[in-house]
Specification:
Among the domains are: 5-21 and 229-283, 5' to 3' exonuclease, C-terminal subdomain (DNA polymerase, domain 1), CATH 1.10.150.20; 40-113, MutS, DNA mismatch repair protein, domain I, CATH 3.40.1170; 299-443, DNA polymerase, Y-family, little finger domain (Dna Ligase, domain 1, 2-Layer Sandwich). It is globular. A 5-stranded mixed sheet has the order 5-6-1-7-8. Helix 6 links the parallel strand 7 and strand 8 (218-220). It is α+β, with helices and mostly antiparallel strands. Helix 4 runs antiparallel to helix 5 and helix 12 (312-333) packs antiparallel against helix 13. The protein is built from 14 helices and 13 strands.
Amino acid sequence: MTDGSERGELTRWSDTDARETREDTRHRVVCHVDMDCFYASCERLRDPTLEGEPLVVGMGYEPGETAGAVATASYEARAAGVESAMPIRDALERLPRRSTTDADVTGYYEPVDMSYYQSVAEDTKAVLRDCADVVREVSIDEAYLDVTERTSWAAAGANGETPSTAAGPATHRTLAEGYARHVKERIEREAGVPASVGVAPNMSAAKVASDADKPDGLVVVPPGSVASFLAPLPVSALHGVGPVTERALVARDVETAGDVAEADPEALTELLGDRGRTLYRRARGEDDRAVTPRGLPKSLSRESSLPATAAAEPKRETVRALAADVAERAQHRGCLYRTIGIKVVCPPFDVNTRERSLPGPVDDPDLVERVAVELLTEFADNEARKLGVRVSNLDFADADQSTLTGFDTTETAVGHPAASDETGDVPSDTDPPSRLPADAEPRETLTDWLADDTETDEPVRRDGERPPDGQASLGEWSSRK
């Protein structure tokens, strides 16, 4: 922070040695996993010829369309000026479609395929759940992991002096760094998409770290180095600072995280409300929030990959096992379900979903198996490389009626890409009525999802979460298992 009258009341406050986290939270190991340009990465997984090419995933660029927006843009497309949530007409002006022009700089445009992205996300979630005891899923491409019980900040190597190979302030390799690299490598190997990972003693620092070396980065911020890592970064790098807050701070000569850490917290509170004190603490490396899962799940599912096969028996046995597992998990969580569904992924990545709606909430493992196997018969002649079973429309309230043996059910074949995602989203209100569940609501669009936050001038979802950097989400990631 520079001297000057504009700085006013935001004067230097206290000693720099008070910036680190409290002693009782310094041992935590928190990873923030952020999938790089996730939708674009999924499209490249499906079509490797798109690797290295400017790629935009969005909607509204088809012939005859007049409105739409960019969901995500690859780094090559960003270099041409395309950004997430940008109107598609502006994106096409900056990066013309390769098939329609001979311009020097052109790119590829792909439509949003949420069902496929959800399938890839399931693979990443499986890795995260296997690697951490506590997972907080923020969106389809972002999650926090508490891996404190799996690793530590202890030095790695026989003599404890092995140099760190990660970006960031770590000078020596720790067990935490090795574990985070293991998570990264498993995601790329098992899901086929890259991720950036930040490792730190708290959530806000881990979030900043994952953004610091994109794409495909690994940044490690050991205890004792959080404040010094943050200090030179612009205030916009702090988690929770949007354009409005940034302008308000910069107008008072508060330009870096270090400036925030040295400011008067009372003056910050007067300027920004309660967020001022929160930013003050985060800039000093203080964040004692525990990583916790978000809310109750909207669905429970289990998927399994298998060698591509059209044989009926292996597919049936896999579905039976998945159905039993999902029903057991529902019983363990004390929830009933109103919908039973399956997913069949045919080579190479043809994602198919089918669901059956029930007349009331049930807890009936036999029914889950029977319905799942019946739904599978539609794909008796198809090769499958992955199968899944899901129960949704969950009810966590106590109920006397827990089985519906003998009741009639109504099958709904769900063809809309988002209809069978983990959030319980329903098909578009433009779909034929016969394909909509009885309790369907209009599906969120990218335009619905984006709104101005009067506090930060950042786009936000209706649940208050902000979009991941460089990507506008078209649906939440998780079933919050």
